[in-house]
Amino acid sequence: MKVEQISIFIENKTGRLAEVARVLGERKVNIRALSLADTSDFGILRLLVDDTALALTTLKEGGFTVNRTEVVAVEVPDRPGGLCSILQVLDECEINVEYMYAFVERNAGNAVIIFRFDDADNAIKILQQKEVSILSGDKLYSL
Amino acid sequence: MIWNDEFETLPREALESLQAKRLKQVAERVYATVPFYRQHFDKHGVKPEQIKSLDDLQRLPFTLKQDMRDNYPYGLFAKPLDQIVRIHASSGTTGKPTVVGYTKRDIDNWSELMARSFVAAGAHRGDVIHNAYGYGLFTGGLGAHYGAEKLGASVIPMSGGNSKKQLMIMQDFGSSILTCTPSYSLYLAEIAAEEGIDIRSLKLRVGILGAEPWSEKMRDEIEEKVGIKAIDIYGLSEILGPGVGIECIEAQSGLHIWEDHFIPEIINPETGEVLPEGEQGELVITTITKEGIPMIRYRTRDITRIIAEPCICGRTHRRLERMCGRSDDMLIIRGVNVFPSQIESVLMDIEGVEPHYQLIVDRDGNLDTLEVQVEVNEQTFSDEIKVLQGLSKQIEKVLKDLLGISCRVRLVEPKTLARSEGKAQRVIDNRPKT
Questions:
Q1: pTM of the model
Q2: B378 contacts in A (CB within 8 Å)?
Q3: Helix B35-43 / helix B12-33 crossing angle, nearest 10 deg
Q4: B13 touches A at CB < 8 Å
Q5: Residue B420: predicted pLDDT
């Protein structure tokens, strides 16, 4: 039930983000979601794309440092309190979140929250017990 | 084992009086035969007659690499060409190479010193010496070759390159001693692994490695990966070629410099002042037996110290500590001497970090600042900010402990820093010139 995410090391200098977008666009890789974590020197760009393998080789050929990480995509109703309900479950079960980001589905009226956990397998098990909706990779990439 | 018992174990007193005698002779010889030295001595107001003891060496002026360039190609030769039997040259990365010439006797002496060096490194007759130093204008190949023949070992004149063939010959011919650069020995180990050859199981016993700076860390790596004892050899074409100094296999600590042929001094590279024994500074060498192109107080730019304590091997010739850098690379940051090579060895010590780096020196108000740019690669890259920041902090801490000054580590994208083929620009000094 895990989803593959690509992380890219980006130096803080003009044009690097545009370069990532350009090489992916040229190879017709579609970005489903992204988040950028930054420090004063560098940033880490995290992407969910429709073709992870193609994106990885494309970026490596373009000279970027990339790696593949596994994250968990959780679906919640797009209404007030939706996020809170999930976070409470995680809190109760003492599941630590490394980072997270979210986006809204176009049609279904749901929000998708991407979590990076210390221990993804354990987190998935607990979330499933609590009947939280977890999206598979195939489903997510084709949203 | 010792090749030349008489001279290698000469009591210090006898050795020093031999040096004084030879110094006097060489000062007279160059003054009489090399117009450059005559003018140079005259300009510094010193006559060869004033050179009577080793202490008088300090009266003589230094000779620089630039002096060799200015007198290109044969201007510093002390013998006419009809007595020069060999000419070598060092690659000039900028402009003309520096040219050296050897008389028949110089070649004999060089062979003798290389034979001593081989034996000090644990080689003997019956060894198969696999000589992968380049043959040609570079002194490495022929220098080691003649020494190996003098020793009576079987020498394979491999020269560099064609690594698969090198490995085949090593296997089939039973090479027991490898002479090459330290980095090439590691490269051979890599190629062997790719070819499915267990290089550790070959007959190779000792590597005599030089012609580029390397570290203790690298020695450990070579000994582990190639399965040999790795011996550091020192030399430079301006002085002789390989065989100016070598570590003995007994101690593997410091390189014996053959003091019956060379007089080493350590100076402050800034002021030229001779430093007390044991202090670190720039190595200056005077050749006292060379005929073709004698060198008077040649500034090698190599940074080392002289170890005067007797060595367990029994040789009386003093040792030079492993070269720790070059004085022309030395940076003074907040009053502290910093060598790029020190930073490189720190980076090599950290798992996964590649020794590709750049140093940016600047001034903030009155304070020098040092930024170390380190490339992130797939091994060190983490998806989590805290891991990357932890890596920067770790490098900053190790550098602080080593250098005594704090610096800032900045992680950069791979391949943004120049590769060290030839002369990589490791340092960018943005400080205003005073």
A1: 0.72
A2: 65-67
A3: 100
A4: no
A5: 39
Using an 8 Å Cβ cutoff, are B241 and B140 in contact?
Answer: yes
CA dist B196 and B381 (Å) reads: 30
* Chain segment B373-409, per-residue pLDDT in tens: 998 888 889 988 999 999 999 999 999 988 888 999 9
| Edge-to-edge order in the sheet of strand B306-307 | B154-156, B128-131, B177-180, B206-209, B229-236, B241-247, B255-257, B319-320, B306-307
Q: Compare all CA atoms of chain A with the CA of B413 and give the residue at the minimum distance.
A: A11
Domain boundaries, chain B: 87-328, 331-429
Q: Dump pLDDT digits (tens) for B339-380.
A: 888 888 888 888 888 767 889 999 988 889 999 999 888 888
Question: In this structure, how many other beta carbons lie within 10 angstroms of the beta carbon of residue B384?
Answer: 15
Pick the CATH number of B331-429 from 3.90.420.10, 3.30.300.30, 3.40.50.980, 3.40.309.10: 3.30.300.30
The count of structural domains within chain A is: 2
| Residue contact B378–A65, C-beta within 8 A | yes
Residue with tokens 């579609």: A30
Domain boundary among A69, A104, A124: A69
Do the Cβ atoms of A65 and B376 come within 8 Å? yes
- Which 3 state secondary structure label does DSSP give B248? coil
